């Protein structure tokens, strides 16, 4: 009986550790200039690639914003529900090879993401090479 309980305990401990070390989940974004929480992005996997969708806008006066500066299919679409991270592939501990859309300026950037810690996501958006860009840190939203 002791061994059975120990096995179950180790299983759930291992499962929790694996889950918390994944980029999959909901992440809170922070405004670079004000330090204010802006939105919740759900990062998910589809067909072996990583995507991120805006699932909540935290500033009440921006909940109905549309992407007026976007091009193509995103032009004048609501930011709420918009997929802003597209097609990242896992390479070691990093996810790269995709893009991120900044709905405030309508521009798409190359990007990569890594886990800085189980509850802190490092996202780097850049033009050309990663030296020319900016880094944001997102925090995991606990359920």
TrEMBL record:
Source organism: Flavobacterium hydrophilum
Protein origin, superkingdom: Bacteria
Ranges of residues in domain DUF2147: 25-140
Protein name: DUF2147 domain-containing protein
InterPro entries for the chain: DUF2147
Pfam families reported for this sequence: DUF2147
């Amino acid at each position: 009986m002791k061994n059975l309980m120990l096995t179950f305990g180790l299983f759930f401990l291992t499962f929790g550790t694996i889950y918390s070390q994944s980029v999959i989940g909901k992440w809170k974004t922070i405004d670079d200039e004000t330090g204010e929480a802006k939105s919740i992005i759900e990062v998910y996997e589809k067909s072996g690639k990583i995507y991120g969708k805006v699932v909540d806008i935290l500033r009440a006066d921006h909940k109905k914003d549309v992407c007026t500066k976007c091009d193509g299919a995103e032009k004048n679409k609501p930011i709420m529900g918009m997929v802003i991270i597209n097609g990242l592939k896992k390479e070691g501990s990093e996810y790269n090879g995709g893009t991120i859309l900044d709905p405030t300026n309508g521009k798409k950037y190359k990007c990569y993401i890594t886990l800085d810690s189980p509850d802190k996501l490092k996202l780097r958006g850049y033009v050309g090479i990663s030296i020319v860009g900016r880094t944001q840190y997102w925090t995991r939203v606990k359920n």
